[in-house]
Amino acid sequence: MMNKLLLTSDAVSKEVFQMLQDEIVARLRSVGKKDNAQMVSQTQNHDAEDSLLKWGEHHGVKCKLRIAFYQGAGRGMVASESIGVGDTALEIPESLIISEELLCQSEVFLALKDFNNITSETMLLLWSMRERHNLSSKFKTYFEALPENFNTGLSFGIDALAALEGTLLFDEIMQAKQHLRQQYEDLFPLLCINFPEIFRKDVCTWDNFLWACELWYSNSMMVVLSSGKLSTCLVPVAGLLNHSVSPHILNYGRVDEATKSLKFPLSRPCDAGEQCFLSYGKHPGSHLVTFYGFLPRGDNPYDVIPLDLDTSADEEDGAAQSMSTSQTTHMVRGTWLSRSGGFPMYGLPQPLLSHLRAALGCGLDESTTEADIKENDRVLLETLLSIFNPMLEDLPETDESDRESASWDVKLALDYKDLQRMIISSIVTSCTSALENV
Ligand SMILES: C[S@@+](CC[C@H](N)C(=O)[O-])C[C@H]1O[C@@H](n2cnc3c(N)ncnc32)[C@H](O)[C@@H]1O
């Protein structure tokens, strides 16, 4: 829009628009500087990654990025040159996208299309489980560059799960694992018996099935294909972009009609040598741990403590007395993310405060005196502390020596608990200091 205005305005307006554009770009540049994780190596000889880039180039991928290795994040993509706002960092031809449309030409689809209402997502999952072992696959180079283990929450071992007991993440991971186990048991050994040529027993193991599930959870993107269909897809090369809470690439996901390619344009500039990040979506830490196996650096505004509040009210209706109950869930973020730390918000969400003030009979109106306001807020803050203090007590601090010797999954579980503790602790601190002042 700015570029258009700069082209069409008179000289004076042009000067103003140019100043505005420079300021916007400077502000965008300052965002996310904390994200730049330590690069481990740019130059190591990593055959699988080099081959993937060459294979992509050969098939028409256009790329202003190269692959680098980052501490704690595996591979990532780094800008080979400075890339500006609106410029395309990466362009992938539609013919390289693994989607439902590609599936329709496969043996797996022909065998399964009429099988027990199977979904195309499940067929794609089974396709990738097989294709990984197909030596003559068109996507051999892509599969060879994928990790042996994805290390998501779905692969958490018993110690990591034990560390999470009592948290919502524990429930999320257990439910997801049970769902996948059930799905596997519904499919196997049935498919191996019915279609032994296609589904070989040695390929269709639980470990290979879980690998394919983790591949789709951690690497897939929603793409509108040129047919107009919205489809969950694997996008080779683009699957090497890591996530950030302040990403460079935000708006992507529609195949360009003219070029028949998926473009990844920048929403904020990326300097040469800087890691270029994508947004995987507005996910809280629990979702990123379960399905991707990491917690992002920096403040994630989608990290919340869900709070279920019951509102039970006695209602007099003539002679009979009835009881109405409703449940509301409030999402509470760390108070450091809020701009309104003091009275009357205390860094907490307005709907939660209104809900509690009404439930406690502590509403504010013109006739409320200053003394009433203070008393009401004392009751409100004490109620909030009675909710959040026990949560904090249930999350004891991690012993640092435990963390040093821990495995990847236990470390991630402990990091998640630290994050939860930090959010709850910020709420307790806000309420305690406010209580001292009323
Ligand atoms: C789409 S892949 C990105 C490429 C991946 N790093 C690799 O080496 O194949 C998604 C996976 O990358 C890792 N990842 C992405 N963003 C990350 C981040 N900000 N910090 C740590 N790991 C990240 C997680 O393991 C996630 O499951």
From TrEMBL:
Domain SET: 63-281
Domain of life of the source: Eukaryota
Gene3D superfamilies in UniProt: set domain protein methyltransferase, domain 1 (3.90.1410.10)
Name of the featured protein: SET domain-containing protein
Provenance organism: Urochloa decumbens
Higher taxonomy: Eukaryota, Viridiplantae, Streptophyta, Embryophyta, Tracheophyta
